[in-house]
Every structure is written in structure tokens, then in C-alpha cells.
Design goal:
Order of helices and strands of chain B: HHEEHEEEEEHHEEHEEEE
Number of helices of chain A: 3
Number of strands of chain A: 6
Helix content of chain A: 25-40%
Largest sheet of chain A: 6 strands, mixed
Order of helices and strands of chain A: HHEEHEEEE
Oligomer: heterodimer
Helix content of chain B: 25-40%
Shape of chain B: elongated
Largest sheet of chain B: 7 strands, mixed
Radius of gyration of chain A: 15 Å
Chain lengths: ~130, ~260
């Protein structure tokens, strides 16, 4: 298999993982999220708070966070040897603790092999999109 | 093995310092040498830019001063490194300008190149440290007093200290609750006496603004309820200087939306 083919396969894998993540977030599927997120996750949310995998899963498990719609756009991938950086804009609609959410968020996520050898998210950063550019 | 990781972390620490220093000094040459060819940057407004656009942005000297990274965490995972950090600076008009960033670095034949950067700024009401923005040059004592009263309010709320509220809430005090309802002074104090508040309930990013005999305090709270889900909120308190001293006449608390993963 040529290097280009390997690279394309890897890209395809990352795109599929991103879609699995999107669906898991929508369904608050904690089992799937647990599989996709590395135990060592460090994620900076759009409020600037650095949170762990445990806190991330807890917000889904408790039902505090309910997402009704997650519409991705502008997906950009940067492939490295065994890892990848994803930048994606996402329109989120739902609620947190009963308060409506309607936000455009830019995510940067890093996928890398976890201790089990599977690709998992090891880091992420989200921030609000305030321009139409 | 640990020594190797520590050595790489030290290299990345220096690179991180170089990144921030070059932003302060508009040192485009530094970025030319350290950004990968397919570098991507997420700007504070959420706009995504490529290397070329980023370089042109960095060529414009910043009006902010005192740029520095804080709480820097560096993780090295093979040929990949991730830097999480807070950011502090001061705007041209002397206001705090803080934020946070996540940078992703790739080791290519022994040379670290920055692959992506995600940078977000907090609003003016979101500095990391407690600050007092005193609008009157003669009232710094008031700002200090109000900063202490703000901490007293937080402590009393956490500890169900009704005596503190009786001493510091104005007779006309009204509280706007997170569910949108209003509580008058006595109702609020009665509730405060029976609330069970997590012991990690604390305030941050507090801004105190003094306007003669009135003051407005904006702040953020964090706490962890029994379900273990870290929760944030915002509050705005209004204080008025009475003959007996500063009294809180109004408070508005709300929970903020948290978005994860």
C-alpha cells in the first residue's frame, strides 16, 4: 500500500471517529464517549475551564447537558504520524441545567493512540465563534 | 525514559516562551522558523486562519503589554506534544486581557514544529485573578472594602451564615434566583440558612467597579454538586453606600451553559 493510500485511510478513520463522537454527544451515549475519550483528556471548554474526562462524562451522565442538534462545518484535518488534529465549527442547540444553548463553537481536537492502542481524544479546546468569516 | 521526556518538556517550555515573546514583539521570523507548513490557528473570534494569514496577523505589533503564559501544562506523547496554558496581558487602556490556549506541536526529525494553535480570550469581565477596577482615583479603599465584602458574601453563602447576610444586605435587598424567581431579603436569608452548598463553592474573575456611592460587582462561581458535575455560574451584585457602610441592594445569579468534548 502506498503512503498516500495509508494517509487517506487514516483521514477516513478520523472523519468516522468525529462522526461517532458527534452522535455520541447528541445521544449522551456515555459508553461510546468512554471509548472515544482518553482517560488523560484535558479539554478547555468555551468558558476557559480545563476539564477532565470524568467531568465531561458526568455532564452527559447526569442529564444536565442535553444536545438536540450538532451541525458540523469547516472540518479541517492535520495528519501526523499516528495522530491527528481536527478543527471543526459546530452549531450546538440544546440545554444545560434547563437553560437553552444555541452556540457556534470552534473545536480543536487531538486524536492519538491511547493506552489500548485505539485512537482517542487526548486534548481539546472549544471557543465561541463571534464572526461570520 | 523520564529524563528524555523531561528534556523534551524543557525544550517545549522554551518554545512556548518564544511563542508568547514573539507575539509581544511581532517577531514574525520566529514564527516562520517554528510553524509547520500546514499550521492552523483558531483566533479569539473563532475564525480559523492558515499559516500565511497568521504570519501577517503577527506582523502587526500588539497594543497589549505584559503578555505571559500562566499555568502551563506540557504533555509529550511520542512525537506529539500538547501545551495547555492560560494567558495574561494588559490592554493599552490598562485593563486585564486574559485568555487560554492549546498548542499542538509535532516532532519532525528531532525538531518541534507547531502544528495548530487554539487561542481564546475571556471578555473584560473574565480575568483569571480577582481585580478591582476602581473608577474613582480617590476610592481605592472602597474597592478594597468591596472586594472583601464580595468574598464575605461568597463565604456566607457557602457556609449558610445568615448573620453575615443580616449585617450586609440592605433592607430593600432583592435577589434574582437562577430559576428566574425573585426573593426578598428575609426569604433570601431564610433560604441561605437552609441551603446545602458544596464546600468548593468559590468565586473567580471578580470585577469590582465603584461609581461614587454605588458599586457593581461581576463575578463567576464554580462548584461541584453531589452528582460530581463541575458547575459554573455568573452573578452581578449591586452595592450602595449607606450611613452604616456598604450594603448589598441587589443580586442576580445565573448558571452558565457548559459545553464539553
Amino acid at each position: 500500500m502506498r503512503t498516500d493510500d495509508l494517509s487517506n485511510d487514516f483521514r477516513k478513520t478520523i472523519v468516522e471517529l468525529e462522526e461517532r463522537l458527534r452522535l455520541a454527544m447528541l445521544a449522551s451515549d456515555v459508553v461510546e464517549l468512554d471509548a472515544l475519550i482518553c482517560p488523560d483528556l484535558l479539554f478547555t471548554n468555551h468558558l476557559g475551564t480545563l476539564i477532565t474526562k470524568q467531568a465531561d462524562l458526568a455532564s452527559h451522565r447526569s442529564g444536565n447537558l442535553k444536545l438536540n442538534s450538532l451541525k458540523p462545518s469547516e472540518l479541517h484535518l492535520r495528519i501526523m504520524d499516528k495522530s491527528a488534529v481536527v478543527s471543526v465549527a459546530m452549531h450546538l442547540q440544546g440545554s444545560y441545567l434547563g437553560q437553552a444553548i444555541d452556540l457556534n463553537i470552534r473545536y480543536t481536537r487531538v486524536w492519538a493512540p491511547g493506552s489500548n492502542g485505539q485512537l482517542q481524544i487526548i486534548a481539546g479546546h472549544a471557543s465561541a465563534i463571534t464572526t461570520n468569516n | 525514559m523520564n529524563n528524555l521526556i523531561n528534556a523534551e518538556q524543557n525544550r517545549l517550555l522554551e518554545l512556548n516562551k518564544g511563542y508568547v515573546r514573539s507575539a509581544q514583539n511581532a517577531d514574525v521570523a520566529w514564527y516562520v522558523n517554528h510553524l509547520d507548513s500546514d499550521f492552523l490557528a483558531s483566533n479569539p473570534d473563532g475564525n480559523l486562519v492558515n499559516r500565511e494569514t497568521f504570519l501577517s496577523q503577527m506582523a502587526t505589533p500588539s497594543k497589549s503589554t505584559g503578555m505571559k503564559a500562566v499555568n502551563v501544562q506540557i504533555r509529550v506523547i511520542g512525537d506529539l506534544a500538547i501545551i495547555h496554558a492560560g494567558f495574561e496581558s494588559v490592554t493599552a487602556n490598562g485593563l486585564p486581557r486574559n485568555g487560554c490556549y492549546t498548542d499542538i506541536w509535532s516532532n519532525q526529525s528531532g525538531r518541534w514544529l507547531c502544528k495548530a494553535a487554539h487561542f481564546a480570550l475571556f471578555s473584560i469581565l473574565g480575568p483569571i485573578k480577582i481585580v478591582a477596577l476602581d473608577m474613582e482615583t480617590s476610592s481605592s479603599a472602597n474597592a478594597s472594602t468591596l472586594t472583601a465584602l464580595n468574598q464575605g458574601y461568597i463565604d456566607a453563602f457557602r457556609d449558610s451564615n445568615t448573620e453575615w447576610f443580616k449585617n450586609n444586605l440592605d433592607e430593600d435587598f432583592v435577589n434574582s434566583n437562577p430559576d428566574g424567581s425573585l426573593s426578598a431579603r428575609n426569604d433570601f436569608i431564610a433560604r441561605a440558612g437552609t441551603n446545602t452548598i458544596p464546600q468548593d463553592f468559590s468565586a473567580n474573575r471578580v470585577v469590582v467597579r465603584v461609581f461614587n456611592e454605588c458599586a457593581i460587582i461581576h463575578g463567576r462561581v464554580n462548584f461541584t454538586p453531589s452528582n460530581g458535575s463541575r458547575t459554573n455560574g455568573r452573578y452581578t451584585d449591586v452595592w450602595v453606600q449607606r450611613q452604616q457602610g456598604w450594603k448589598c441592594v441587589s443580586a442576580h445569579a445565573s448558571l452558565t451553559n457548559e459545553v464539553t468534548t
